[in-house]
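User: Continuing from earlier, I have the next pair ready.

Assistant: Great, send them over.

User: Here they are, in order.

Assistant: Folding the first of the pair now:
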Amino acid sequence: MCRKFALGVSVVFQPLLIPSMMVLTLFYIVPEATVVPGEAKWSIALLVGFTTFLVPLLGLVGMRFSDLIHSFHLPEKRERLVPFLLVSVFYCMTSGFFYWKLNVDELLIATLGLATFSLMALTAVTYFWKISAHQTALGGWVALVAVLSVKFYSPPMFYYLLVIIVISGLVGTARLYLNAHKPLEVYAGFALGFGINFSVLYSLLVA
């Protein structure tokens, strides 16, 4: 039962879903953070979900059925490089499209760009060390909510930040329980995602 729960947590909060969760946070948890028109938010959120989750997921499914990878869990470091590179390409295309074609909001562009840069940094690190992709993505989400909590402080934002931190801890614990990572790999993944996103977003919104 515990293993099924840990697998469920890993799937529900898998890295490909986190950029969509970050955009939904901007649009619906802190709507005053962006200038995106209300009527356009749902369409943009769906587009982000399609390009950062569904299309990369289909790419990974194709790699699995062509035996380029042996498991969606990517347990071996050597198996991670090509999928991470493929997803990085999709994320670069998405960020470029939003920047050059749909440049409707600076914070939205920054969020997508940072998700892309975090993934590229993760890919580079993976060449030497298998750190947690889950925690890299969640570190970015925690950083976004932390900066928004400073900029647009309110009691609900504080509790939302606590919820995201608890989710991150739960996912990290699940990854350790499944023996997918060692503790240092989990901490390093979170530090990478949080460090990249917090430093840029804080300078953009607060400093």
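And the other member of the pair:
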Amino acid sequence: MTDLGFQLHSLHAVDDSLHDVVRRVGEAPFDGVEFAGLDDADPAELDDTLDDAGLAAAGAHVGLDALESDVRGVADTYAALGCRAITVPWLDPEHFDSVDAVEAAADRLTAVGDALDDRGFDLHYHNHDQEFVDLDGEPALDVLLDAVDGVGLELDLGWAGAAGHDPLAVLDDHADRVDLVHLKDYDETTGKPTAVGTGDLDVEAAVELVRDHEFDWLVYEAEGRPDTYETLAHATDVVEQYW
């Protein structure tokens, strides 16, 4: 069964403490949260806040450089939160300029993935649109997934659509590499993400496909909005309509 998560970066403009933000998400119809940094919060205290809010740690976004410099520290931090899924959220477009560049990035991801696996974690990679540049007739994302070993894909539906691809077809094609999915919408005209339910994503079909594949988490994320509690209210409306 798929659980419903909320990416906390969607509320990055909120001035409240991370504890208060987590409590507010706990009042909404979500099963867990995906972290994008801890804002110096103590992991043990934050774990208590998660418990009180009735939320699980769906995962955490951590930069590749941070993982390479202190994979043990990252693992210790998120283990204290009961989080076992770490996702690299971004690699610069230069990493997808050529097959050689993609393969070099894949080597780095594989090495970090192996180090995390030794500590009981799974590593995933989250796409934007640069991963869909054409390399020898196929998207750079496909080249990356072929080259990387033991690393999953957290597919962002909105960015896949913004890149000009059918996000549901991409998700279906790579389902065996996916445990987490980012629910995000997109505007075909602008080539940019937009609030879920206001763009060209077939949200109902996306939810149905996620449930059919029984992915672990469907994670709501917002970009380009005020990123205040209004974002959480909109997410709640989406959940009540489609989930």
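Worth noting for the second one:
The CA atoms of residues 6 and 147 lie 30 Å apart. The chain is about 40% helix and 20% strand.
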